[in-house]
Amino acid sequence: MSSNRVAPDPNPGGNGTDKLKIMVPVGEARQVAPSAQCTLDLKGKVVAFVSNEHWLSLGAIWKKMAEVLESQGVSSTFKTVIPAMQAPPAQIVDEVVSRADVALVGLAN
């Protein structure tokens, strides 16, 4: 649902065409069925961090995330780098699928 508001005419003595239209987009949350199995409990799980390493602060963020996840019972984490601006090689995808229960992906240009 969106609402449109028209600001008052800044030139009330004018011809009335000098108006500013402000669009206010407002969305409503929809209930949708998950498209993949959802794992809420990460205790004992392996988490992969997948990155193209173009987001410079992501390394520091993932280091902290790994500490938090492991303190909450995640068995281990590992990081793998994928090439920028292209699909990851099949061998990297296969490695992540075979080693991890969950993958967190961070990509940037």
Arithmetic mean pLDDT: 81
**Mind summarizing the main beta sheet?**
3 strands, parallel
Secondary-structure content class: alpha/beta
Trace the largest sheet across and list its strands.
4-3-5
Strand content: 15-25%
Number of helices: 2
Report low-confidence residues grouped into runs of 5 or more: none
State the shape.
elongated
What can you see in these coordinates?
The protein has 109 residues and is α/β, with parallel strands linked by helices. It has a domain of 61 residues. Helix content is 22%, strand content 25%. It has two helices and five strands; from the N terminus they run βββαβαβ. The strands form two sheets. A three-stranded parallel sheet has the order 4-3-5, with helices on both faces. Strand 3, helix 1 and strand 4 form a beta-alpha-beta unit. The two termini are 33 Å apart.
Compact summary:
This protein is of the alpha/beta class.
Q: What are its keywords?
A:
about 110 residues; alpha/beta; three-stranded parallel β-sheet; elongated
Question: What are the SSEs and their pairings?
Answer:
Layout: E1 2-6, E2 21-25, E3 46-51, H1 58-71, E4 76-81, H2 90-99, E5 102-106
Parallel strand pairs: 3-4, 3-5
Antiparallel strand pairs: 1-2
